[in-house]
Amino acid sequence: MTVSEIKDKNVWENFVGSCFERTFLHSWNWGEFNKIMGHKIWRLGIYESNNFQVASNKVANLVGVALIIKIKAKRGIFLLCPHGPIAKSNSKNQKSKILKVLLNELKKIVKKEGVDFLRMAPIWYKAAENINIFKKLGFRNAPIHIHPEVTWELDIRLSENDLLRGMRKTTRYLINRAAKDGAEVFQSNEPEDVGIFNGLYQATVDRHHFVPFPLNYLENEFRTFLNDNQVSLFFAKYNNEIIASAMIIFWQGTAFYHQGASSQKYSRISASYLLQWEAIKEAKKRDCQIYNFWGIAPPNSKSSHRFMGVTLFKTGFGGAMKELVLTQDYPITLKYWLNFIVELVRSKTRHLG
Prior knowledge:
about 350 residues; alpha+beta; Aminopeptidase; eight-stranded mixed sheet; seven-stranded mixed sheet; 12 helices; about 25% strand; globular
């Protein structure tokens, strides 16, 4: 196998779209977004060929890809592979080869970029054989996750009536009640409306005590995916006030509920439930097959886990859990261990364990 950078958007998107496991965190636009945010990136293609020229010119030889992002943190520099690498085949043997070749390539980048550790948030199912692939190469479980390791997905190819029947009874009731109470949901593709979302988002941060994304992060994310009509803002309004909002990304047949926010001013109005239902219906109009609710609490989590409330909310719409291999670290320098200790403490204080 050989590794070469991919510079053609169509080659990248067509390959990732052909793979069974994928999220927008490995989309071309997520790479563009990270460049806008000031991060250096590499789009690496892994080719099944001993001939470099053949590998670099024939997409047919492409068996894996990895978006790599250089992150400059206070306690060290690391290379992040978000929800990757992506493999064409689910074969244990091929995935093992892909990761080994990729690791060797990343070690070359490490020397040039002064990196302290590697971090991968795999998109591979949590299974012993996938865990062992990382373990045998010297990876270890990270002390904290960067991207969801447990997600909730709903197959939306069913009819609207069947989707409603598949929901928890309480969820179905709250959707109907919100509409009867006068809540309304509308969409926006105007970048300036990210500011409205951010107002609710900050109120949500104050209520649930998590580290927020800054406004410029949200604005850049929205603008980047808007270029390809892959994102929309949803707002729920009651009594002429916006009380709930969400940023939904539509990519490669899946809708992702990536950012959400709400107000407690009219807490008896179940606007967030109606908003999600309208987002699901929009996803169906866009010919999506899956609605990804993003992160939920891991199985058997403590009641104090920060995601328990949102987990109850998301799972009420029906669907199934998808559990991925835990985030994996590959230590390079001693700085990694300082970072490890700090992040381990953070995971406890933020009730993520």
